[in-house]
Design brief:
There is one protein chain. The protein contains 18 helices and 8 strands. With about 450 residues, the protein is α/β, with parallel strands linked by helices. It has one domain: Phosphoglycerate mutase-like (Rossmann fold, 3-Layer(aba) Sandwich). Strands 1, 2, 3, 4, 5, 6, 7 and 8 form an 8-stranded mixed beta sheet that branches. The longest helix is centred in the C-terminal third of the chain and has 25 residues.
C-alpha cells in the first residue's frame, strides 16, 4: 500500500514540477512507461501499425540500411568495477541505510554477471536484430528473391559485429538462396562510425563537442541542479553524504546507479535494478542527458554545433552505393551495422523532423529533440521502388516507421530518388566545405 501511495504521489509531483505552457511528450511517455527515460538504453520495439502502401505500379527493388547494434551491457567495465569497490567500502564504513544495505548486497552478488561483459551484445540485442532481419525479408520478399546477393558491413566493435550476424542469420534462414558478403574492417570505420579517428574531419567532432557553452552556462548549471538532485536522492541509501562525496562524488554516484539500472534492463539476467528512481526523478534525468546528446550530436547551443557535419561521409556512401547498385542490378541490399551517434548525426544533417531544430534556451530542447528515438536496435532503412519505366522512388524509415523528408511531397512518404540526391548531395557538399574551413581556422 505504501509503495502504491508513494508511486501516485511521485506522479503528481512530476506533473506539477514539469508543468509547462505546452506538454512535453517524453515526460508524458515516462509517466506511462518509466523505461522511456532510459534514452540510448531504451529497447527498440517493432512497429505494429501498418505502413503506407507504395504508389500504384511501384515495387520494391533495393534496400539500404544502417542499424545501431542491439541491446548491450553497460558501456565500460570500470563502471561495474567502481561500483563494486565503492559498495564494499560503504559496507565496511557502515554508512548505508537499510535500503542501501539491500542494494549493496544485491549488487555485490550480481557483479559476477557483469564482470568482463561491458559493451557486449546481450541475448536481447541478438533477438532484436534477428527480428529486424526477419521482418525485412517478409516485408520486401521481392527484393531478396530477385537479387539474393547482399553486402553487410559492421564497425569493428563486437556488439556491432554480432548484430550483423544476427540480422544476416535471419535473412539467410528465410531463403537458402540468399548470399551475404560480411565484412568488418578499420578501413571503413570513418563511414560506419563517423566520430572515429580515421575520419578525415574527425577533429570537427572534437571542436564541436562542448556540452557546456558560454551563453547557456548559468542556465545549464541550474538545469543540472534541478534534474540531477543527488542531495535529495542519496539519503534513501546513505547516512553520510559527505563520505559519499569524498569516496565517489554524489552526482557521479546518482548517474552511475542510473546507468546500472538502465543497462541491466537490456539483459536477460536473473537480477533487476528497476525502481531505483521514481518517475519524477527519471523525468529530470532524461532531460539532463537528452540535453547532453543535443549538444554533442545535435544542433548544439544556438544551432552552432558542427559535429554532425561529419555524417556527410555516411550520407555520401548511402547515395553513391545506391546509385551504383541500382545501375548494376547486382545487389538486393546493403546492410550497415554501427552505433547510435551516426544515426542521430545523420538525422540532424538531413534536417528531418526536429532533429536539427535550434532552440533559444536549453530548457526548450525537450520540446524538439528526443534521443530515446535512437534506442538499442535503432535502424534507418531506405527502401527503393521502381515502376516498369524504371522511375525510382525511395522511402526513408527510422525504426521501421516512415519519416517525412524536406522534399517535394506529393507522394510522401515516397519521394523521387532524383529529388533526394539533388537535395542531399548539395547538403553533403556544403558540409564538407564548412568542415574544411573550420579545420583551416583552427590550425
Amino acid at each position: 500500500m505504501k509503495r502504491a501511495a508513494s508511486f501516485l504521489l511521485s506522479l503528481v509531483f512530476c506533473l506539477a514540477l514539469h508543468a509547462q505552457q505546452r506538454p512535453v511528450p517524453a515526460f508524458e511517455r515516462i509517466l506511462q512507461e518509466p523505461q522511456y527515460a532510459y534514452l540510448e538504453y531504451y529497447l527498440y520495439k517493432a512497429p505494429t501499425e501498418p505502413s503506407a502502401k507504395p504508389p500504384k505500379g511501384y515495387k520494391p527493388v533495393y534496400i539500404s540500411h544502417y542499424g545501431r547494434h542491439g541491446a548491450r551491457y553497460n558501456y565500460k567495465q570500470e563502471g561495474y568495477d567502481n561500483l563494486k569497490s565503492f559498495f564494499e567500502k560503504a559496507v565496511s564504513a557502515d554508512v548505508l541505510t537499510a535500503e542501501g544495505k539491500a542494494l549493496a548486497e544485491k549488487y555485490l552478488n550480481a557483479y559476477k554477471y557483469f564482470d568482463g561483459r561491458a559493451g557486449d551484445l546481450t541475448p536481447i540485442g541478438w533477438e532484436q536484430h534477428y527480428g529486424i532481419g526477419t521482418r525485412m525479408y517478409r516485408n520486401y520478399r521481392q527484393v531478396f528473391r530477385k537479387r539474393p546477393e547482399l553486402d553487410a558491413r559492421a564497425s569493428t566493435i563486437q556488439r556491432s559485429i554480432m548484430s550483423m550476424v544476427a540480422c544476416c542469420d535471419a535473412l539467410e534462414e528465410q531463403d537458402p538462396r540468399i548470399r551475404i558478403a560480411k565484412e568488418t574492417s578499420e578501413s571503413f570505420m570513418a563511414i560506419m562510425n563517423p566520430p572515429h579517428s580515421t575520419h578525415p574531419f574527425s577533429d570537427v567532432a572534437r571542436i564541436g563537442k562542448k556540452p557546456y557553452g558560454k551563453a547557456w552556462k548559468d542556465e545549464v548549471r541550474e538545469m543540472k541542479a534541478r534534474d540531477v538532485r543527488a542531495d535529495e536522492y542519496l539519503p534513501r541509501l546513505f547516512t553520510d553524504l559527505d563520505w559519499v562525496e569524498a569516496n565517489f562524488g554524489k552526482t557521479n554516484l546518482e548517474l552511475e546507479l542510473y546507468y546500472l539500472m538502465i543497462s541491466t534492463a537490456c539483459t536477460d539476467l536473473p537480477v533487476s535494478f528497476e525502481g531505483l528512481f521514481t518517475p519524477e526523478e527519471l523525468c529530470g534525468l532524461w532531460e539532463w542527458r537528452n540535453y547532453i546528446y543535443y549538444q554533442y550530436w545535435g544542433p548544439g547551443e544556438n544551432g552552432t554545433n558542427p559535429a554532425f557535419l561529419i555524417a556527410s561521409g555516411l550520407l555520401d556512401d548511402i547515395m553513391d552505393k545506391a546509385d551504383e547498385d541500382l545501375a548494376s542490378g547486382r545487389l538486393g541490399a546493403r546492410l550497415r551495422f554501427g552505433h547510435d551517434t551516426p544515426i542521430a548525426m545523420l538525422l540532424c544533417l538531413m534536417g528531418i523532423e526536429g532533429w536539427s531544430t535550434p532552440v533559444a534556451h536549453p530548457s526548450d530542447i525537450k520540446y524538439v529533440y528526443d534521443f530515446t528515438n535512437v534506442p538499442m536496435g535503432a535502424n534507418l532503412q531506405w527502401v527503393f521502388y521502381q515502376d516498369r519505366s524504371g522511375d525510382t522512388l525511395v522511402r526513408m524509415m527510422l525504426n521501421e516507421r516512415d519519416l517525412t523528408l524536406p522534399l517535394p511531397g506529393d507522394r510522401a512518404p515516397y519521394y523521387r530518388w532524383s529529388d533526394f540526391t539533388s537535395h542531399y548531395r548539395s547538403i553533403s557538399s556544403a558540409a564538407r566545405a564548412k568542415m574544411a574551413d573550420m579545420l583551416t581556422e583552427n590550425q
